Amino acid sequence: MIVLRIMIAVTVVLSLGAEILLGQLETGYGKRSQYKYEKSVSGTRSLASLFESFSGQVVTRSTLSKKIERYQTIVWVPDSFEQPSDRLIDRVEEWLDKESFRTFIYIGRDYDGVSDYWRQIAQSVTGDDQANARRQWALARSEHLSRRYRKRWQVNDRWFKFEDGMEDEIESIDGPWAEDLLPEYLTLQLGSLRLVPPDPVENIQITTLLEVNGQPYVFQLKRPNYSRVIVVNNGSGLLNFPLSQFGNEEFAQLLADEHFGYSQIVFLESGESEPRITNSDTKPNMWTWIQEPPLNYIVPHFIVLGILACFVFFPIFGRPRRSVTPATTRFSEHTESIGRLIGNSSQVSEARDALAQYQKTIRSD
Asked: Can you give the pTM of this predicted structure?
């Protein structure tokens, strides 16, 4: 456990430190598959590594297709402040009902790892570095609040409801998970846009797994077949930067332990929009790999570059070019012509006569 915690912390801290030395900070949210998300303060590489260490192989998907039927656990960290659509909830619940002991983990958006990072940096440096850190902190905070209040309200309330509150850091914890956690080492935060359990529904058992400051922070909705949806308020203890801090790894481990068995785990990546939903039964073919990230972004660019190359290099396209006309007055051209004539002639006597005539002409000159 200690070794794993140290590995995660060192990996994240070194990556972030390298970015700062280069004057850059990766800020992509909720993904792990691309290089920039691996080092992002708000990425999920560390969480995925923790799941993989304790529970099995981790794969990445961007589509809810028939392929998800082979998996028992799906983790979704959307970069959106909005509730999931009814269509997505229907698809996930269909997957949950098809087999027992399946788990869908939803991690809410109301945590800004970039603001949290610059806030802590500003507290640890002085002078110009502190001024720059405070400026970056203010910019990140402004962007986060702007996105939060631009959200569109939906009223499906099937997995959770929104509740307004004051932003607050951890003061007390309670619930079944609290016995395994040390509150003084946790950096969990309650945002002003909180996720709370929905109204009771028949055959759905709602259980709060962790309370922070008396508010539900992690809760589950268990179905009759023991499949369930686990809702986490936000990623303040689960994303790359929080997991580099001592104490949060225990919280992430509790979430990973909710995975049943050792089958593959899906990290569903969607960005600001919802993942695409398809019921296609089409079997994978030799071109399926092109549709998977990052190749689905790279291949179209190569196709466009190939078309441009055709216009530039093929003679029937592009700007006309002037051809070079060979000179007709150079004596060397005459000599080469005589040589080719002699070489192509099948009559040895004619070749000798032509050579003798040439030598006679040279002597006369």
From this structure: 0.71
